[in-house]
Automatic annotation (TrEMBL):
InterPro entries from the UniProt entry: Anthracycline_SecMetBiosynth (IPR052164), Glyas_Bleomycin-R_OHBP_Dase (IPR029068), Glyas_Fos-R_dOase_dom (IPR004360), VOC_core (IPR037523)
Record-linked Gene3D superfamilies: 2,3-Dihydroxybiphenyl 1,2-Dioxygenase, domain 1 (3.10.180.10)
Domain (VOC) ranges: 10-128
The protein, known as: VOC family protein
Highest taxon, organism lineage: Bacteria
Organism: Niveibacterium microcysteis
Signal sequence segment: none
Amino acid sequence: MDKALRQQQRVVWFELPVLDLDRACAFYEQLFGAPLQREQMGPEVTIAVFPYDGTGVSGCLQRAPGVVPASTGTKVYLNADCGLDALLARVEAAGGKVALPPVMLPGDMGRFAHMIDTEGNLVGLHEA
């Protein structure tokens, strides 16, 4: 990837704050059907990284002192190209809640939905 293209991709990493890392991992692993990689970052911070092949954007769940989940503020959108409807069908069974059903975007921009995860984070799902 050339430097100019990398500079256009402003988002490079995201962190979703969690209160209970085991519960949050179980939710996202059930939702996406893939394991998260747990890592210890110093004595008080533990993260669980979403599957990542070295290209594009990735991120993690983060459990740390003072880190508080939020239903307002910055919102991250996770890739739902594997099937937005299928993901939404698994949200409640995994312990979350659908906050906004699918919304069509103009043109060929796809569609999105919002969910609230087990930790109280409002998270977007986007399907191209």
